[in-house]
Design brief:
Layout lengths: L2 H12 L3 H8 L3 H9 L7 H11 L3 H4 L17
Helix pairs in contact: 1-3, 2-3, 2-4
């Protein structure tokens, strides 16, 4: 699973729009859209960190450190 798919999955699970996620993370709405649609497959670490905080998850999860069939450890979730 790629970065954009993980972002989208977390975002949908939280029930927030792309615009709301962009606002919470302090990034452009277009960036969220580009990542989720696969037009863009990379992001700066500071952006991934901001998205992880806004989604209440870890950078490791968003970057795919955990396999698709693995649950993210509760201790890995960002405070």
């Amino acid at each position: 699973m790629r970065l954009g798919e993980r972002i989208q999955g977390c975002r949908l699970q939280k029930g927030i729009s792309q615009r709301e996620l962009a606002r919470r993370a302090g990034v452009r709405h277009a960036l969220i859209s580009e990542l989720e649609t696969g037009k863009r497959n990379d992001a700066m670490a500071s952006t991934v960190r901001a998205l992880a905080i806004a989604l209440d998850t870890s950078m490791d999860y968003l970057c795919g450190r955990f396999g698709e069939d693995e649950e993210e450890p509760a201790s890995a979730v960002a405070d």
